[in-house]
Amino acid sequence: MSDFELNRRGLIGAGLIGATMVGLAACDKATLAPGVSKADFAGAIKAMRGVVGDEWVFGDPEAVTPWKKNYIPDPEGRHVPVGAVAPKTVEEVQEIVRIANKYRQPIWPVSTGKNMGYGMATPATPGQIVLDLKRMNRILDVDPELGTALVEPGVTYQQLKDYLEENNIPLWIDVPTVGPIASPVGNTLERGVGYTPYGEHFTFQCGMEVVLPDGQVMRTGMGSIKGTTAWQAFKWGYGPYVDGLFTQSNFGIVTKMGMWLMPKPPVYKPFMIRHDDMADVPKIIEAMRPLRVSSLVANCNLMMSASYQLAMFKRRNEIVPDGRPLDDASVKKAAKANGLGMWNTYFALYGTEQTVAAIEPIIRAQLTASGGEVMTAAEMEGNPWFHHHATLMQGGLNLDEIGLLRWRGAGGGLAWFAPVAAAKGKEAEAQTKLARGILDKHGFDYTAAYAIGWRDLHHIIALLYDKSDREQEKKADACYRELVSTFGENGWASYRTGVNSMALVAEQYGQVNRDFNKLLKNAIDPNGVIAPGKSGIV
Amino acid sequence: MSDFELNRRGLIGAGLIGATMVGLAACDKATLAPGVSKADFAGAIKAMRGVVGDEWVFGDPEAVTPWKKNYIPDPEGRHVPVGAVAPKTVEEVQEIVRIANKYRQPIWPVSTGKNMGYGMATPATPGQIVLDLKRMNRILDVDPELGTALVEPGVTYQQLKDYLEENNIPLWIDVPTVGPIASPVGNTLERGVGYTPYGEHFTFQCGMEVVLPDGQVMRTGMGSIKGTTAWQAFKWGYGPYVDGLFTQSNFGIVTKMGMWLMPKPPVYKPFMIRHDDMADVPKIIEAMRPLRVSSLVANCNLMMSASYQLAMFKRRNEIVPDGRPLDDASVKKAAKANGLGMWNTYFALYGTEQTVAAIEPIIRAQLTASGGEVMTAAEMEGNPWFHHHATLMQGGLNLDEIGLLRWRGAGGGLAWFAPVAAAKGKEAEAQTKLARGILDKHGFDYTAAYAIGWRDLHHIIALLYDKSDREQEKKADACYRELVSTFGENGWASYRTGVNSMALVAEQYGQVNRDFNKLLKNAIDPNGVIAPGKSGIV
Q1: How many Cα neighbours within 13 Å face the side chain of A348?
Q2: Confidence of residue A30 (pLDDT cuts 50, 70, 90)
Q3: Would residue B308 show up in a list of annotated catalytic residues for this protein?
Q4: Which residue on chain A is closest to B296 by alpha carbon?
Q5: A226/B491 Cβ within 8 A
Q6: Catalytic residue selected from A103, A118, A446, A480
Q7: Interface ipTM
Q8: Residues of B in Cβ contact (< 8 Å) with A197
Q9: Extents of the domains making up chain A
Q10: Confidence band (pLDDT; 50, 70, 90) for B18?
Q11: pLDDT reported for residue A410
């Protein structure tokens, strides 16, 4: 599919095409933001129409429907936007920001709005207008020699990959889950992580253009130097490094982002390590850590539980009958039948024939000693799980993980809980035990993975439930909150969280940090119009 | 030398030991900061004495002498501190900050104050009290499994290396120039660069403790989570990533810093590539870039001009008679006699016997094709320049580059000019030409190197002059300003600069960025007491 087709599909999916100007009567039912009157809201909508055209502003509940869809538990319906606006240019974004200030109307910027399991396009607090940047989808520059790109927020990973392939540029992208429809800008600003050696997306970001809450445009790094050629070559610029301020925050709207791309290596060899026991967690982490710290294994790799793996391609009632807990024996049986262990650790080697051949025996010895079975394409040919990770670890794209949404039925409920730990076996062992206990208590499954970073673990727990079942949604909400709180009491906090839990997680990072963020917020966005509630900052 | 001896020597060197309480009469002659009365200054000094003890506060011009020493041109004497205070604890730093606010007395924090060629401990504007953190010199934690450390600002690279060696911990440090006396905290906060694969120091920083201008203590990243074990394991934390705000800036005082340390590889093999012509610049960059972008060459490597190399160990009048320009023929002759080319590019391979053996032929072919001679320890045994870089590229320590200060006599004048470019041959060629023209016009030598980063170049130009010659100092000042301005007009700005040129460089980064920094400054430090003038932010 071409980038244009894909984007068109994305726009259709979000209901942008074919929408027409509608009255504001219906917004009586919607909850406006604190301090925003109906007249303010109507004034803002009208003014935005003047900027981007009627067809790209959506101000009544029906037209806004496409931006309301999310998968996280929201039993009180707090995460409902009251409108959406889709500008095409930076100048339009500037105008929208000025309008937001004039009417004190909060706006919630999204890139493509596919933050699946974290809230999609929905805002943290009621009454916001989604600022949908999907139409700003130009690939502005790719430098094949430097291995860099400059993209707008609406560019998808698929679009970027297509561009590279169509132009025979031997650079790889690094994708997150649901890469085809997700945006490099959006994922990087959330500090998302992928699967190749360039998987820590924020590390490989280089230069931004930001519309500040006062409507001014700022370029970071080297981007503000007249005539610069180094905007995408050198990250830090001069003076305070501010790019981090625009990640997981509400201090500005990123309208361009530079990124580094990995040169395609001559040889790529994916591995899967099978461990057969849920209790193998500490052994695996202890075996992997030295490989990661030394960069012998250089990619951001995933240690996937069998249940997470099964949930991608199977339904829960294929493993155990409805109403029964997901016991280890049943999972093991199903895993075995599908060529999986209870833990399946995926990584790859990247290099030349000789370097890969030199490293392989070292990792084989280390992981075999940990009790793992070392599998490669030779043994796993045709296995869909191996194929899935083998694709991702070379920057390939697929939507396999959307299958998680069907694990418990068609209702599509998913909330990621992602606490961080140091990459130590004991930490992971204790986290797994704690998570299983809480999930079990609330009647949910431990469908989880560990992303093994350079020195850290992201414990990626998919809380899967049926959102069409109101009671189950309430239980999922309670379970999620207990996960966050109990992990916090044990010293583990999330690296990222959904719009349903942003303030809760922010509390765990302490009063001084919250005060500091608030101080910055007040200075940069005194009217509080950009994404109130994002990361708990209002 | 043990860390204690070294530190003691450092303290003695800075005049801290043996100083006594002195009267304030002499400060009549010193320039106080704008808006600070003699009574304010006296009040601040007295209050600081109450906090840290008389022996660690220096309030008269004579006692302050050790903090006045720098090597940059300062013909108008603007960079002269009026006092110094050396706390031992975070609580003392907090108290000092509160005192500074009370009396509106600006303080200029330094770690060990060895920012050689950028101003040492001297402040950007007159009237500041140096906040010397040298006594806060504890190594608080080293985790051999994770490869992490947590250090205070006064810890030197030498001290950290000694600690690792004494405890048989197989981790390397990455040092900047003058590593033995410099501080990891100070260098990282300046976003300095070293020589190993961990050479981008800010990339390998993980977690900070900061005393904010209001006296509160904030921990960044995971550091504010109660009971966390991940403070040094995971960089980003949650919400806006703020660590960058405390680099090259004046928004807070970093009192603890986490850092990642590289595991000692089984095999380390240093290389030197000799090119014989000054005009080889673009060829070398074009040959090195793909090796760097692909990480085949993984370390921060240096492409050293013969003149820079000679200036480390020779005096100028050993190459050409005094008063004569430093012509290429004379430099080439001296270089050749010392086993050097006109450009000497140093990098290393790190890995196992097999991986190094696999990569070596690739780089040899690439660099030989560029016209370079590939040299290793086999050919360069005993060569002091090769030895110098071979030491640094494995995290070893030496003070060889202090020799630069003697190039033009005992007067010790050095100002680094460090413009950035994308790693492209044409950019470097044009920069070299431009720099040589300006230096030549003012009667100075092109003693320069290129630090070849992942995708960027730091053109590191040592402006060497005799500071004991007032006229030469003035010329050096004019030359430096012309370098900054003319490079800026061509789209090239510095990644870092000395206290003599901070505002000048800040201008090149544009009004919007300056306004944004000022907005942050006003919010975070409303009384402007932390390091006014740092990076041009007042």
Answers
A1: 27
A2: low
A3: no
A4: A351
A5: yes
A6: A118
A7: 0.94
A8: 295
A9: 3-132, 139-263, 267-489, 511-536
A10: very low
A11: 83
Q: Indicate the residue of A202, A423, A490 with minimum beta-carbon distance to B146.
A: A423
Q: Collect all residues with Cβ–Cβ distance below 8 Å to A44 and sequence separation of at least 6.
A: A99, A100, A102, A103, A105, A129
Higher confidence at residue A177 or residue A10?
A177
Using CB atoms within 10 A of its CB, is residue B130 exposed (0-12), middle (13-18) or buried (19+)? Answer: buried
Angle formed by the axes of helices B3-13 and B157-166, nearest 10°: 170
Rg (CA), chain A: 23
**Active-site hit among B71, B103, B118, B480:** B118
Please give the model's pTM, rounded to 2 decimal places: 0.94
Taking a C-beta distance cutoff of 8 angstroms, is the pair A79, A122 a contact? yes
- Answer yes or no: is pLDDT of B351 > 60: yes
What is the chain A residue with the closest CA to B286?
Answer: A145
Q: Is residue B271 a contact partner of residue B265, using CB atoms and an 8 Å limit?
A: no
- Chain A residues whose beta carbon lies within 8 Å of the beta carbon of residue B242: 244-245, 516, 520
Q: Which letter does DSSP use for residue A398 in this model?
A: -
Closest CA to A108 of A534, A538, A537: A534
Of the spans A23-37, A197-211, B5-19, which averages the highest pLDDT?
Answer: A197-211
Burial (Cβ within 10 Å: 0-12, 13-18, ≥19) of residue B526: exposed
Q: Which CATH number fits domain A139-263: 3.30.450.40, 3.20.20.70, 3.30.465.10, 3.90.1170.40?
A: 3.30.465.10
CB distance B524–A524 less than 8 Å? no
> Which chain A residues are within 8 Å of B254, Cβ to Cβ?
none
Q: Which of B251, B352, B488 shows the shortest C-beta gap to A240?
A: B251
3-state secondary structure of B424: coil
Q: Which CATH architecture group holds A3-132? A: 2-Layer Sandwich (3.30)
Q: Distance, in angstroms, between B468 CA and closest chain A CA?
A: 31
Mind listing the pLDDT tens digit for each residue in A252-266?
A: 999 999 999 999 999
As a whole-number percent, the residues of chain A with pLDDT over 90 amount to 91
State the pLDDT at residue B30: 66
Query: What are the chain A neighbours of B249 within 8 Å (beta carbons)?
Result: 239-240
Is B496 marked active-site? yes
Which among B202, B427, B509 has the least Cβ separation from residue A225? B509
CA distances from B131 to B10, B94, B106, B128, B432 (A): 15, 12, 10, 9, 38
Are the C-beta atoms of B408 and B429 separated by less than 8 Å?
no
Q: What pLDDT digit, counting tens, does each position of B125-139 carry?
A: 999 999 999 999 999
Report whether A534 contacts A459 (CB < 8 A). no
- Is B465 catalytic? The answer is no
How far is the alpha carbon of B478 from chain A, nearest alpha carbon, in Å?
22
Smallest Cβ–Cβ distance between B294 and the set A222, A263, A358 belongs to A263
Q: Which residues of A fall within a CB distance of 8 Å from B223? A: none
Locate tokens 């010895």: which residue? A365
Give the DSSP letter of residue B199: -
| CATH number belonging to domain A267-489 | 3.40.462.10
Taking CB atoms and an 8 Å limit, are A535 and B238 in contact across chains?
yes
State how far the Cα of B533 lies from the Cα of B500, in Å rounded to an integer: 10
> Which residue in B239, B221, B219 sits closest to B230, CA to CA?
B221
Residues of B whose CB is below 8 A from A537: 239-240
Q: Which residue is listed with tokens 């080297």?
A: A222
CA A9 to each of CA A6, A17, A135, A160, A398: distance values in angstroms, whole numbers, following the listed order: 5, 10, 12, 16, 16
Write the pLDDT tens digit of every residue in B302-345.
Answer: 999 999 999 999 999 999 999 999 999 999 999 999 999 999 99
Could B509 and A212 be called an inter-chain contact, meaning their C-beta atoms sit closer than 8 Å?
no
Does residue B272 have a pLDDT over 50? Answer: yes
